[in-house]
């Protein structure tokens, strides 16, 4: 039960009666009248069962992009029903304007639109629809919260999408001329064409030129159908926030850009995500819509406060296939975590595959090392230098094991990783 | 037209209900009822209509005088008892007028307060008191001697010869020069008249003469400088009005406090700042005052950076590095060694550590610039 603002107003109207007959009994009488009216109004108010609610599936949207949820409300009773409805969602779903007034004739239906603006990645859920049905005098109302399940899948935003066109242009350049340092290995002969000025003289095919009136050069195209395996670390180190964005989200951004690029380059992308156990596996098999599938898979990945089990992750990578691949480990360059977990499995990985470690660097660390105003700042700077030195040592250790380390700020990591991939592809090192 | 009517139907309904309620209240207010305490026309618990009716039935000619003018018009002689209820509304001027009007007739004041006893010249301050269980008259007047008065609270007057003595020794019923002060006004109310011997006391108090003039003083009769109690000055609709406003406020709270459905909750994510471990390491150094360690870390970082900058490779000997940096910057080797060398002295104080940190940063900038 809920009363409306008319009840206190009606009570105040009793002042007229009190002025005419100043007595305590007048107050009691008036209170009795108002209470009776309110209760009667509540009794004759329509029941919540008079409305049937049905939610249309919401689907997915990218984080920070608006969408809307629709509820079809139908009057199943035989009288006109007025109602106030609130479509409640968890706060991060960003359901604004979620209160709706409807007035439905018998058998009528209305569609309620609630705009959503997800502010968090993952599946965001509706918490219930509250229905308030006032009586004919609108003094009192019946109120109940009904469960109308619904959820919106908020996909990783893929902010680094803006870097894709320039990298694709680079890829097309590579297609035209593949400068391959190691001849004969991993490059594919594409075609013969006429020599134009500026071509590398080393690519002139003399035998073909002898049969032709013009000088003919061989063109090469980069190898296709290589494999790239992205390993997304969702363990405790990925939960750390850099400028209030979890490292995992930045790593996802980088993974999405790389996957989009790799798919366009004609290579295959496989993705493994996990911490103590493997949480997600995606095999592309050359699909074009790999980005959408990855976004869908990554949507409900959350960092777990547990140490990563690199044995099982490496096992999952090996299980993806025996073909040589580019394995990209998206994990923070956290010295202790890497030395204790990753280092033991790296030799096995590097023996079969080319391994790249992509890490989100914290710009706050450099800022901390540079600030030297007070004694507190100097101690903090010393600690930051210590951490930076350890990171550098770990990076050197990894390099000695044959692992390329891409360590960049959250903003810079996706393009840096994409560039590294293009570099490897141009060099025919995949 | 009908559409507009339908649109405002609820407003119309409420207005009609309001008018009906007001009409009922006005109608029920007819018939000279009042809400005044101890009023002979008040049928409520605090009124005294029962007493007035019973007196009337017993052959006493009861006439009600509301206000001083009606009292003046009343026929008062020695065979008349004048009873005054609502004595709070008496002021100095109305008391004088009352005394002159009453003359030799018997005057009964019901629960006169200090202001009234003063104005009457009765002497002695009345006090609030309680009567013990089963208090009898116990006085010279045989009319009250054996009767039991039962009230919860009463006013009592200091007197040697009064009836119904309270625990403090004061009397509830006192007669002085033909003026009777009766402190237990509650005993006359419709509610309590049947307790103990209250009815008998009331009848003997008021029914001694053939005629009874029931004087209900009115505040309107007062003149400017009369001292009256505050309660008689406030409008009588104020208290019920305030009650109504209070009830309305409660309803207002009930209206606003009802939320449209429960609060929605958010499953909160873990928030860990990546920089946190570094900051706590810094705090650890600070708490331990570990200047040696801090200076070592800063020097090592500066050496690494200088080596990178001068492209000396990562495995350069520290002395070679110091020499190269000094040459590069054109500064004395000793000065650079005091800053960079791993075996340079530890800063003796926090201030020295800050200076060292600043100098290392400056050196770093110089190396980068040249």
Automatic annotation (TrEMBL), chain A:
<dbReference type="Pfam" id="PF01882">
    <property type="entry name" value="DUF58"/>
</dbReference>
<dbReference type="InterPro" id="IPR002881">
    <property type="entry name" value="DUF58"/>
</dbReference>
<protein>
    <submittedName>
        <fullName>Uncharacterized conserved protein, DUF58 family, contains vWF domain</fullName>
    </submittedName>
</protein>
<feature type="domain" description="DUF58">
    <location>
        <begin position="192"/>
        <end position="389"/>
    </location>
</feature>
Automatic annotation (TrEMBL), chain B:
<feature type="domain" description="DUF4350">
    <location>
        <begin position="40"/>
        <end position="206"/>
    </location>
</feature>
<protein>
    <recommendedName>
        <fullName>DUF4350 domain-containing protein</fullName>
    </recommendedName>
</protein>
<dbReference type="InterPro" id="IPR025646">
    <property type="entry name" value="DUF4350"/>
</dbReference>
<dbReference type="Pfam" id="PF14258">
    <property type="entry name" value="DUF4350"/>
</dbReference>
């Amino acid at each position: 039960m809920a009363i409306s603002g008319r009840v206190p107003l009606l009570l105040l109207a009793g002042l007229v009666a009190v002025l005419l007959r100043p007595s305590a009994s007048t107050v009691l009488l008036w209170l009795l009248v108002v209470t009776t009216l309110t209760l009667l109004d509540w009794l004759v108010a329509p029941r919540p069962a008079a409305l049937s609610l049905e939610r249309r599936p919401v689907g997915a949207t990218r984080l920070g992009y608006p969408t809307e949820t629709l509820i079809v409300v139908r009057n199943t009773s035989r009288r006109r029903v007025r109602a106030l409805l609130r479509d409640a969602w968890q706060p991060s779903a960003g359901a604004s304007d979620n209160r709706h007034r409807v007035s439905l004739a018998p058998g009528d239906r209305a569609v309620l639109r609630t705009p959503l603006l997800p502010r968090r990645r993952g599946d965001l859920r509706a918490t219930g629809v509250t229905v308030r049905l006032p009586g004919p005098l609108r003094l009192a109302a019946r109120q109940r919260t009904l469960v109308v399940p619904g959820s919106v899948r908020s996909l990783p935003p893929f902010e680094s999408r803006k870097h894709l066109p320039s990298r694709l242009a680079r890829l097309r350049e590579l297609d035209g001329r593949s400068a391959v340092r190691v001849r004969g290995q991993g490059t594919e002969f594409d075609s013969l064409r006429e020599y134009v000025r500026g071509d590398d003289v080393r690519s002139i095919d003399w035998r073909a030129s002898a049969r032709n009136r013009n000088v003919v050069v061989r063109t090469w195209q980069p190898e296709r159908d290589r494999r790239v395996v992205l390993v997304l670390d969702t363990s405790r180190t990925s939960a750390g926030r850099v400028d209030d964005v979890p490292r995992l989200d930045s790593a996802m951004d980088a993974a999405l850009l790389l996957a989009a690029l790799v798919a366009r380059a004609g290579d295959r992308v496989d993705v493994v995500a996990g911490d103590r156990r493997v949480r997600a596996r995606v095999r592309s098999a050359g699909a074009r819509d790999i980005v959408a599938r990855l976004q869908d898979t990554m949507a409900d990945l959350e960092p777990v406060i547990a140490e990563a089990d690199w044995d099982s992750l490496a096992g999952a990578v090996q299980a993806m296939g025996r073909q040589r691949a580019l394995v990209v480990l998206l994990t923070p360059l956290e010295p202790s975590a890497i030395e204790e977990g990753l280092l033991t499995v790296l030799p096995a990985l590097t023996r079969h595959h080319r391994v790249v470690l992509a890490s989100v660097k914290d710009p706050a660390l450099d800022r901390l090392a540079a600030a030297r105003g007070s004694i507190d700042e100097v101690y903090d700077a010393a600690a930051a230098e210590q951490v930076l030195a350890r990171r550098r040592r770990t990076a050197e250790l990894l390099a000695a094991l044959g692992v390329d380390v891409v360590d960049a700020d959250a903003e810079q990591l996706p393009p840096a990783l994409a560039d590294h991939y293009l570099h490897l592809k141009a060099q025919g090192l995949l | 037209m009908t559409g507009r009517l339908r649109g405002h139907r609820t407003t119309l309904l409420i207005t009609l209900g309001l008018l009906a309620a007001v009409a009922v209240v006005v109608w029920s207010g007819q018939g000279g009822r009042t809400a005044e305490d101890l009023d002979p026309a008040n049928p409520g618990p605090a009124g005294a209509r029962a007493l007035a009716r019973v007196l009337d039935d017993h052959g006493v000619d009861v006439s009600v005088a509301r206000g001083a003018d009606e009292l003046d018009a009343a026929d008062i002689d020695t065979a008349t008892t004048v009873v005054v209820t609502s004595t709070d509304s008496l002021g100095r001027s109305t008391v004088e007028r009352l005394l002159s009007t009453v003359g030799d007739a018997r005057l009964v004041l019901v629960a006169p307060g200090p202001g009234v006893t003063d104005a009457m010249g009765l002497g002695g301050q009345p006090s609030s008191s309680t009567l013990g269980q089963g208090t009898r008259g116990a006085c010279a007047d045989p009319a009250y001697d054996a009767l039991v008065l039962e009230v919860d609270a009463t006013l009592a007057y200091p007197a040697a010869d009064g009836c119904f003595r309270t625990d403090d020794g004061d009397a509830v019923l006192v007669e002085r020069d033909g003026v009777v002060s009766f402190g237990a006004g509650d005993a006359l109310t419709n509610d309590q008249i049947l307790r103990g011997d209250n009815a008998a006391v009331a009848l003997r108090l008021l029914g001694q003469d053939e005629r009874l003039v029931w004087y209900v003083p009115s505040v309107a009769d007062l003149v400017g400088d009369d001292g009256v109690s505050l309660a008689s000055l406030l409008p009588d609709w104020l208290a019920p009005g305030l009650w109504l406003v209070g009830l309305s406020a409660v309803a207002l709270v009930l209206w606003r406090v009802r939320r449209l459905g429960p609060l929605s909750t958010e499953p909160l994510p873990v928030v860990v700042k990546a920089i946190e471990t570094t900051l706590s390491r810094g705090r650890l150094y600070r708490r331990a005052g570990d200047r040696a360690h801090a200076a070592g870390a800063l020097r090592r970082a500066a050496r690494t950076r200088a080596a990178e900058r001068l492209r000396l490779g990562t495995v350069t000997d520290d002395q070679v590095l110091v020499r190269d940096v000094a040459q590069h910057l054109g500064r004395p080797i000793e000065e650079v060694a005091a800053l960079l060398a791993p075996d340079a002295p530890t800063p003796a104080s926090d201030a020295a550590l800050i200076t060292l940190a600043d100098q290392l940063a400056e050196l770093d900038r110089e190396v980068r610039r040249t």
